[in-house]
């Protein structure tokens, strides 16, 4: 009599006298995952283990992380542009006072990074 695993097309291999099921994760399209996706992956592994395992075993983890990365990057860029306008950080400032422009842009990027982390990466 075949086991349920064998009825579903599963196979076994023998190790030290034991039959071990040949388990494979479903294949999924490889997509590049940027910094945002890597941060979210670390978060899932540490704090959302069930979600991580479900995405991994369903073969959807890579696609999910690539999508999170895209959303986070778009949000980050929109936030920076909005903050630059509100704070009057212009190309003219960059030409006239590069040091001040750099400091203000670093501040804007840090604020935008915190917002993206809060809204998307660690949510």
From TrEMBL:
An example of a Pfam family matching this protein is: TnpV
Q: Which InterPro entries match?
A: TnpV
User: Under what name is this protein listed?
Assistant: TnpV protein
